[in-house]
């Protein structure tokens, strides 16, 4: 969280299943920033539409 504008506004994440070409949308509409909104840089997102019992695990890497 450094530099001129370190925060990110996350509108949504789109994930495409490469086998079925189905696109899953995970809306957020929140800031990922230590100086905006609720000052959080991690979010728990849920798919917009039913996913037929599928589970999603999206892992990020924290960089120093």
What characteristics describe this protein?
PLAT/LH2_dom_sf; mainly beta; Polycystin; two-stranded antiparallel sheet; 64 residues; PLAT/LH2_dom; PLAT domain-containing protein
Structure, explained:
The chain is mainly beta and 64 residues long. The protein has one domain: Sandwich (Lipoxygenase-1). Helix content is 0%, strand content 30%. A two-stranded antiparallel sheet has the order 1-2. The radius of gyration is 14 Å and the shape is elongated. The chain starts with 7 loop residues before the first strand and ends in a 32-residue tail after the last strand.
**Helical content (DSSP H or I, runs of 4+):** under 10%
Which stretches of 5+ consecutive residues score pLDDT under 50? none
Multimerization state:
single chain
**Main sheet specs:** 2 strands, antiparallel
Number of strands: 2
Separation of the first and last Cα atoms: 10 Å
Pattern of helices and strands? EE
CATH architecture identity: Sandwich
Integer-rounded radius of gyration: 14 Å
How many separate domains make up the residues? Answer: 1
């Amino acid at each position: 969280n450094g530099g001129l504008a370190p925060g990110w506004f996350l509108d949504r994440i789109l994930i495409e299943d490469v086998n079925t070409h189905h696109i899953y949308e995970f809306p957020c509409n929140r800031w990922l920033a230590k100086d905006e909104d609720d000052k959080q840089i991690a979010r728990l997102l849920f798919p917009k539409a039913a996913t037929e019992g599928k589970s999603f695990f999206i892992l990020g890497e924290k960089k120093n």
